[in-house]
Amino acid sequence: MASTHSSLLLSSLLLLLLLSFSSGQTRPKALVSPVRKDSATLQYVTTFSQRTPLVPINLVVDLGGRHLWVDCDTNYISSTYRPAPCRSALCSLADSDGCGDCFSPPRPGCNNNTCGVSPDNPFISTSTSGELATDVLSLSSTDGTTPSSPSTAPKFLFSCAPSFLLRGLAANSTGIAGLAKTRVAPPTQLAATFSFKRTFALCLPSTSSSPGVLFFGDVPYKLLPNVDASQSLTYTKLLTNPVSTAGSYKQGEPSYEYFIGVTSINVSNNVVPINKTLLSIDENGVGGTKISTAVPYTVLETTIYKAVLNAFRAALSGIKTVTPVSPFEVCYNARDLGSTRVGPAVPAIDLVLESESVYWRIFGANSMVAVSEEKLCLAVVDGGDRPRTSVVIGGYQLEDNLLKFDLATSRLGFSGTLLFRRTTCANFNFTSSA
Ligand SMILES: *[C@@H]1O[C@H](CO)[C@@H](O)[C@H](O)[C@H]1NC(C)=O
Ligand SMILES: *[C@@H]1O[C@H](CO)[C@@H](O)[C@H](O)[C@H]1NC(C)=O
Ligand SMILES: *[C@@H]1O[C@H](CO)[C@@H](O)[C@H](O)[C@H]1NC(C)=O
Ligand SMILES: *[C@@H]1O[C@H](CO)[C@@H](O)[C@H](O)[C@H]1NC(C)=O
Ligand SMILES: *[C@@H]1O[C@H](CO)[C@@H](O)[C@H](O)[C@H]1NC(C)=O
Q1: Is the minimum distance from the CB of 148 to ligand 5 under 6 angstroms?
Q2: What is the model's pTM?
Q3: Which long-range contacts (CB under 8 A, 24 or more apart) does 367-370 make?
Q4: What is the CATH number of the domain that holds 347?
Q5: Which of 173, 211, 296, 339 is most exposed by smallest CB count within 10 Å?
């Protein structure tokens, strides 16, 4: 009964969001925004436009984040900001934690009789409470080739957060773009607003000098020179972890992060001996593999970590290791490793998925990080012996790979390194055709 009621409520709300899309605009096929790598924090930062008048806001990308939040305490000026009234449909859409008043003069982030949610900063493992609100959000439309005219969602649902929640984030960012599979995170909310498919794609840059790209919607994802990165993808199932992995969550709530089913790991075409139990998600939500932009390098449970390092060293046994640089433990002199189009010539690491023919192959460009001019280290870190999630695939391993998240069919399409196709994530043509 309750669930029928709430799903009715939700469909009417989605309809409302839909109708609120102003009829003066042409309906975009997809939206696009740049994603920069911040060299100080190794975070990935995207830029949206929000408020009236519109201002660009820099948001750190958190694939596992529940929603979009911004600091409303500092310089939030907008004539179209509206707090979400207590017990409104917006509150249920956002799975609000409750209602409250604010005992200071009213301003964005501080209003009476509004509902709140829990904005989370995974970089400092901190959540707090924040007012739920709507405001104008604008992104460039795209056909997948170049950005064109801006498309505007007049009532985009997000949350406010106090300024202290920005701690640990890249300079000049004012919040986090949570891209998880919730109804309110931008992928689903923008799809509902503009009636396009619940699909988005992330292509992280490997350099801070030019931006990678984030697409919402399903179009050919074009990278110069004329590579359609939506083609030749390998698909794997997105899994649901039955227990939330979030900083704060409700009893019984499943995780809204992106888990995939790694079944074994190969190094140089040999199976790495690891405890397979750690690769599956148990009834308490422990184990398994997720994809995260909240960690710069892949994090492996200790026994998996040691086994992968041993296999890697063994496969490169002809080459001398050098004094490692923390947090890494296996390093080589760059001169001792050959170089290839796909990075330093090192053994490939395969994440084998649902069958032997479905695997994510990681080459040197994504496995070896330069810690100095002459030293390269295997870019994985030790996650300790009882981590919640056994394998967390981090940012460095995702760079110059296109990831297409199809939320309607719960599938992840991945390109493998784009370097083989003579392009990179920094090759989207951001020169507007509008
Ligand atoms: C909320 O209501 C209280 C009590 O009526 C009042 O003191 C306070 O100023 C109000 N706060 C805002 C933000 O309107
Ligand atoms: C932050 O913004 C200021 C002023 O807009 C700019 O000068 C500075 O380069 C920016 N810093 C970064 C890290 O983007
Ligand atoms: C993994 O290694 C095993 C044993 O060598 C091999 O049979 C299998 O094909 C490999 N799988 C992949 C995806 O490399
Ligand atoms: C494999 O891992 C599971 C889960 O941590 C643990 O219960 C089990 O004892 C491990 N098996 C071996 C052989 O170490
Ligand atoms: C990028 O897009 C602009 C606008 O459509 C176009 O004029 C330009 O030729 C494109 N650049 C390349 C390298 O294709």
Answers
A1: no
A2: 0.94
A3: 367/343, 367/397, 368/332, 368/337, 368/343, 368/344, 369/297, 369/328, 369/396, 370/334
A4: 2.40.70.10
A5: 339
